[in-house]
Structure formats: structure tokens, C-alpha cells
Write a structure and sequence with these properties.
With 196 residues, the chain is α/β, with parallel strands linked by helices. The protein contains five helices and twelve strands. Strands 2-1-3-4-12-11-10 form a seven-stranded mixed sheet. Strands 5-6-9 form a three-stranded mixed sheet. The radius of gyration is 15 Å and the shape is globular.
Length: 196
């Protein structure tokens, strides 16, 4: 059984854990970098990206997650998680993990008051996905190897590259677990290649 952890520094951790369990994987709340050694996949949830970034740096998560990524172990960043994995952030703010070849605009869709829901088309999914956007970022540009999975108003809101998956929205806040199934398939595929 795949073991998927959720970085538990801030954000909707419980909702992610439930979704992981619903896809048949084991879910772990990750509060210490050493726990990454137990994992096959990692989710970095939403919240306030600057605050999470500072907590990650304080508790030694930055290098640990970079090492995890260097092992080609899958990582799924949602909302603030997408901001945290980006190689570059728009403006002067320095990026955090710098592991995915994307440039991200924080709070790209506006503040809390501008939060919204939208049915969006996702590459590889037959039916539209009900996406919940809360102070959501978006991807301004992506490298050649990055597969664009979804757009809203021409803005990129979901993408994948090798072992990395990101969404600007909160898939944990809906009953639709197709993004978690996609991620668990990435994790299972990674486990096969690691064991061979």
C-alpha cells in the first residue's frame, strides 16, 4: 500500500488525509522532516504560502523536500503548495522549494472576497471538475516539459511535470477525488520504478 503524507504546518490537512484514504492509500500527517523517509508521495496543502515557507525553513523541510523530489518521489502542491514548489514567483519575492519549472503569481485571482468555484475542463478527465478557488494563485508561464492540465480565463491553474503535480484550487474541498486518483497513480508508478 502506498504511503502518502500531508505537510501539516498549516492548511486543510484533515481533508487531504480523508481523500488519500478514500483512494486506498495510507495517509500520514507530516510534522517533522524525518517522516519523509517513510513516504512514497507527499502533498503540500494550501494555506498562506509565505507563512508555510517560513515554517518549512524553520523546521528543516526545505532541503528535506528537495531531497525527496530529487529521488523522483511524487509531490502534489495545492494552492499555496503550488506557490511553494515553483521555481520562480512573480515580483520580487524569492521562491521557496524551486523544484518545478513554473512561474507563479500569488493571489492571482484576488483576495478572499474574490474566491469562487468553477466547473473546469481537465486534460485527461472526461467530465468537468468542480474547482474551489480561495485566494488562488495561477501559473504565468511553464517550461517546455510541463504539461498544462487546466486553464481558467486563459490562466494556467493545473499542471504536471514528471513526478510533480500542482493545482491552483483546493481539490480536498470537494467530493470529487479524481485528482487524488491521478496522484496515487503517479505514486504507484514511482513505487514500481523505485523497486525495479
Amino acid at each position: 500500500m502506498a504511503v502518502i503524507g500531508v505537510v501539516a504546518l498549516q492548511g486543510a490537512v484533515e481533508e487531504h488525509l480523508k481523500q488519500i484514504i478514500n483512494t486506498g492509500s495510507k495517509a500520514i500527517m507530516v510534522k517533522h522532516p524525518r517522516q519523509l523517509k517513510e513516504l512514497d508521495g507527499l502533498i503540500i496543502p494550501g494555506g498562506e504560502s509565505t507563512a508555510i515557507g517560513k515554517l518549512m525553513a524553520h523546521y528543516g523541510f526545505i532541503e528535506a523536500i528537495k531531497d525527496f523530489s530529487n529521488q523522483q518521489k511524487p509531490i502534489f502542491g495545492t494552492c499555496a503548495g503550488m506557490v511553494l514548489v515553483a521555481k520562480e514567483l512573480e515580483g520580487s519575492e524569492s521562491a521557496h522549494l524551486k523544484i518545478m519549472d513554473i512561474v507563479v503569481k500569488r493571489n492571482g485571482f484576488g483576495r478572499q472576497i474574490d474566491s469562487f468555484e468553477a466547473n473546469i475542463e481537465i486534460e485527461g478527465m472526461e467530465a468537468p471538475f468542480q474547482a474551489v478557488f480561495i485566494r488562488a494563485p495561477y501559473i504565468i508561464s511553464a517550461g517546455d516539459q510541463v504539461e498544462i492540465l487546466a486553464r481558467v480565463d486563459e490562466k494556467i491553474v493545473a499542471a504536471r511535470c514528471d513526478h510533480l503535480l500542482v493545482s491552483a484550487f483546493h481539490p480536498e474541498l470537494t467530493d470529487d477525488n479524481r485528482f487524488y486518483k491521478m496522484f496515487s497513480e503517479m505514486v504507484e508508478s514511482s513505487m514500481v520504478s523505485h523497486s525495479s
